[in-house]
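Exercise: predict the fold of this chain.
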Amino acid sequence: MSSTSEPPGEGGRTVGEVGERGILGEVFGVLAEHGAAAGSLRDVVVGPGDDTAHLRVRTGAVLATTDTMVRGQDWLDAWSTGQDVGEKIVTQNLADLASMGGRGTGVLVTLLCDRELPLAWCRDLTTGLARACSRAGVPVVGGDLSAAGPGVVAVSVTALGELAEGIPGAVLRSGARPGDVLAVSGPLGRSHAGLEQLRAGARQGRWVDHHLRPWVDLEQGPVAALAGATAMIDVSDGLGRDGGRVARASGVDLLLDEAAVDDLAARLAPELGLEAARRAVLGGGEEHELLATFPVGAVPTGWVVLGGAEQVQGEPTVRLGEQALDPDGGGWDHFGG
């Protein structure tokens, strides 16, 4: 994707005009307003304002993940507000923690931007970050600011977390075994459906909203881990790509049930048509529901059974009936499209 349009709010002050102190004043005020400031939380010994944050670690081990969004590559100003970007990037990171069986303990935010970026856009970004963090009970504990070239805006979030209580070890991609049941924590294809609607000119609607500001039940990660999940991943790059990653890491084939896929597609079909809806379920990225394998009888309540893991036949793959899905099809590749 590409865009040369400037963010809204060009008539107000810019970040270059107010400087770093002015930006931070806005950021800290918004975080406090939405309950995402770190100062009052028990596990935050030192929050923003010093050289580093200082967090208590309950388990003696830390989960860490990071994601970056770049204007024109990961969002278009014509579609997304700063608030949309903030909410989306927090969800991306916290879903990664959930896929290991973890919960967030803090996030670090970096903003690189053109000096002409409107301060109002920065405030909107912080509102999105704060809303998503507050909803998840995860504080913003620090970050960084840097100037960038004309037109450049990039946001990076690093999320820190720990395994939920009672979980002895992180759930990896590599634990699936033949005979395991494959299941997903919620619907698939909504983000892709929203993207297609945006491309068609829509600017609102339930699928558009999910594409711009995805939110999932992050507690399903710990729930799955406690239920005995053998492998897990969040569906950020499509069922085919992410399922393929589990298959290759575990050395198994994943067989999808066609009826289960059609059931997921049915909720999208009225807007997309059945075939396009199936493609959205199989290849749509930025969904962030959790895909996991379980021993028979261990799938948590509310999860949707999609199929199972089988003895590998040649190269590990994901199959829909007799058809092997393209491991590079659908989803999103930052360098390959």
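Check your answer against the key: Confidence is low (pLDDT under 50) at residues 1-10.
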